[in-house]
Design brief:
Layout lengths: L1 H4 L2 H52 L17 E5 L4 E4 L3 E5 L33 E2 L5 E9 L2 E13 L5 E9 L1 H53 L14 H50 L6 H25 L9 E3 H11 L6 E7 L4 E3 L2 H18 L3 E9 L2 E8 L25 H4 L4 H11 L3 E6 L5 E8 L2
Parallel strand pairs: 9-11
Antiparallel strand pairs: 1-2, 1-7, 3-5, 4-6, 5-6, 6-7, 8-10, 11-12, 12-14, 13-14
Helix pairs in contact: 2-3, 4-5, 5-9, 6-7, 7-9
């Protein structure tokens, strides 16, 4: 059970059902309130009409005992004087509340206006006609018992003045049974219809969510299969839609492609590193074994060269490993490139190939690691000296917010179709060259990685002398 309700489909269905239930309950309460208010207003209007009808009879001088009062169960009526005496009431009214007096039977002469001995009103003292108050009067709730049945009513109170000048208040009620019945029926209909509607909402949400998440389940299953098989060449299915699930599938495939490339690159790196390390280690071991057996045959200089080469290769591999791990130069460091060029050229002075600086702009600062940038420049100079015929030229300038360091040689250059390949690891285009002269093929790969970690680029093109021109671009300043 916990597993079922822990799924996205179940949570979505429960959430949608709860939201719809809350909305329907709020809407139902509002509808009931509006309906109840409208029906109550109708009851108030009916009671006002009934009260004014009786008040009109009083104003015309009709005796209290002869008033034409409506049936008590429809509109119970009381006529009350200013001193609280009951002048008239509906015949079948047995009890009442909410009108200001609980009397239901008028008593004695108080219920009749004063009359002459002949039973006629005193014409001299009486005005020609009474009047009914133009105010709407007060309306309030109460109860009335008619023929033994007690119900709730809305009572309207209207003042009227008799032709003799007596002011009375007419209380007339209108029953709320209709309003209560209508509200009860609507409430019952809502209570009966709400559960099936919520079940429909939950079911539809479950089905729609299940359909929407079906591609996600396909992605999950394929990822599980890839994990079990370790076959990174496989890809998850991509839906034809353009929604979030399709974007998730595309992003997952892009991640798998990047991961496959990284793993393949790592495998090649390990294989190439093992191959490159095997030669100097085997050569050094052979020389040491010969030296142990025949000390007079030990080639000390060769052993030292193999050791140095092994040390350089190990340092290159360690630097590449750090770069692959995402190592970046420390923030706040500044390198003056002109001074760095002079230092690297001074360290490599002499030899059959001439190294010279040309058009070096100074000072020119860049942010980064001095040791890593020195490694880049040193690798470019060593590469140029290996391939140059007579000369390697270094230039330094600014160009649109970039510091541009160029290393050019007058050798045979790099074929255009090979200009990106030379930056791959353990790549040497001159395969006929001996390993001792050509290096391990890591220098240019290290140089480009360091350039990219410093926010720059390293490219190669044809130089003016016909050889190769390597350009290192770094953000100036």
């Amino acid at each position: 059970m916990r597993r079922v309700f822990g799924t996205v489909r179940a949570r979505a269905a429960l959430g949608a059902t709860a939201v719809v239930a809350a909305a329907l309950i709020a809407a139902g309460v509002a509808v009931l309130m509006v309906l109840s208010g409208n029906l109550r207003d109708q009851a108030d209007l009916q009671s006002q009409v009934a009260a004014r009808e009786v008040a009109g009879q009083v104003a015309t001088g009709a005796p209290y005992g002869r008033l034409d009062l409506p049936d008590g169960d429809e509109h119970p009526v009381q006529v009350v004087s200013e001193d609280g005496a009951l002048r008239a009431a509906s015949e079948d009214l047995q009890a009442v509340t909410g009108t200001g007096t609980a009397d239901v039977k008028p008593g004695g002469a108080a219920s009749r206006p004063p009359e002459d001995d002949d039973g006629d009103e005193d014409e001299e003292d009486a005005p020609h006609s009474g009047e009914v108050s133009s105010d709407e009067g007060e309306t309030r709730g109460g109860t009335a018992t008619v023929e033994g049945e007690k119900q709730e009513y809305r009572f309207a109170s209207v003042e009227a003045t008799t032709p003799r000048g007596e002011t009375v208040t007419v209380h007339a009620g209108s029953p709320l049974a209709t309003e209560q019945g209508a509200v009860g029926e609507v409430r019952m209909a809502m209570l009966i219809g709400l559960p099936p509607l919520l079940l429909v909402v939950a079911g539809v949400t479950w089905l729609v969510t299940r359909r929407a998440l079906r591609p996600v389940e396909g992605i999950r299953g394929e990822m599980a299969a890839i994990t079990a098989s370790t076959d990174l060449s496989r890809r998850v299915p991509e839906p034809d839609s353009r929604d979030e699930v399709a974007r998730l599938a595309r992003t997952t495939n892009e991640t798998l492609a990047a991961l496959e490339t990284s793993v393949e690159r790592q495998r090649r790196f390990v294989a190439d590193a093992s191959h490159e390390l095997r030669s100097p280690i085997a050569s050094l071991r052979t020389q040491l074994e010969v030296g142990v057996a025949h000390p007079e045959l030990l080639d000390v200089e060769g052993a030292v060269e193999d050791t140095v080469r092994l040390q350089q290769l190990a340092a290159d591999l360690l630097l590449l490993a750090r770069l692959d791990a995402g190592e970046r130069p420390r923030e706040g460091g500044t390198v003056e490139l002109a001074a760095l060029v002079r230092e690297e050229l001074a360290q490599r002075a002499g030899g059959p190939v001439r190294l010279r600086a040309e058009a070096v702009e100074s000072p020119l600062d860049v942010a980064g690691s001095r040791s890593q940038l020195a490694r880049v420049l040193g690798n470019l100079l060593d590469n140029g000296r290996r391939h140059a015929a007579t000369e390697v030229t270094v230039s330094l300038r600014t160009e649109g917010g970039w510091a541009v360091l160029g290393v050019a040689d007058d050798g045979s250059g790099v074929p255009e179709e090979q200009r990106e390949r030379i930056f791959e690891r353990f790549v040497r285009l001159d395969d006929a060259r001996s390993r001792d002269d050509g290096g391990a093929g890591l220098g240019l790969a290290i140089a480009r990685d360091v350039a990219e970690r410093h926010g720059g680029t390293l490219t190669v093109r044809r130089s003016a002398a016909g050889g190769a021109l390597f350009e290192l671009r770094l953000p100036a300043g």
